[in-house]
Design brief:
Shape: globular
Strand content: 5-15%
Number of helices: 10
Structural class: mainly alpha
Strand order of the largest sheet: 1-3-2
Number of strands: 5
Helix content: 40-55%
Largest sheet: 3 strands, antiparallel
Radius of gyration: 17 Å
């Protein structure tokens, strides 16, 4: 069985269902998920700036932007920066409930999106499938909260220690820039500092 929980402020079943299917759509294309994440962490931003950060062609960037607009998760604003329209992305989140409930939100979308450019994440998905990203993210959050070690993460998700270390390092750099935009992580406090170099090497960058 599946259901969805909308982001803050939405309460009706229609909105919940829409958000669930939007999350599913974003988890179907890593490139689209990566572009959405870039818009989210840099909102408001221009499509030109986003495509430069993500090294996309103009046509591809606008194709993704229009797709996200059709999904009602981004909006072109009546505001401009150096003659280019600003766009705003909204966070989406949902739950998948079967034997356990898994929260699907911007962090998972961002990590999945990064599989298109991060070799460690791509290898992890190739070996274990993209569904295993969710427990890997949850275990990495436990590590960052100080509840376990990197080797403990590897044991928890059932991978060799070297692989667990690599995937947590890849994920934590993403969490560093996405957490503030993920309503499912609003109450999470990290006890472990994320190294500046890890953030600088992450596939998402804030345009300061």
């Amino acid at each position: 069985m599946s259901n969805a929980s909308p982001s803050a402020g939405s309460g009706d079943a229609g909105s919940a269902a829409r958000q669930f299917f939007v999350v599913q759509e974003l988890l179907g294309s890593p490139e689209l998920a990566r572009f959405y994440t870039d818009l989210l962490i840099n909102s408001p931003t221009t499509i030109t700036a986003a495509r430069e950060r993500q090294q996309l062609s103009k046509s591809t960037a606008y194709k993704y932007a229009n797709t996200l607009a059709e999904l009602s998760v981004v909006e072109e604003l009546d505001e401009y920066d150096h003659g280019s329209a600003l766009w705003r992305a909204d966070p989406v989140s949902g739950n998948w409930t079967d034997q356990a409930t898994i929260e699907l939100g911007p962090a998972l979308i961002a990590v999945y999106g990064a599989t298109s450019v991060d070799e460690d994440l791509a290898l992890f998905v190739d070996r274990h499938g993209k569904a295993e990203l969710a427990p890997a993210i949850a275990a990495t959050i436990s590590y960052l909260k100080g509840d376990t070690t990197r080797r403990g993460v590897a044991d928890e998700i059932g991978v060799p220690a070297v692989e667990g270390i690599a995937v947590t390092q890849a994920i934590e750099g993403i969490l560093a820039v996405v957490t503030d935009h993920d309503p499912t992580l609003a109450d999470v406090d990290f006890a472990v500092d994320i190294h500046e170099r890890t953030i600088a090497d992450a596939p998402y960058q804030r345009d300061e």
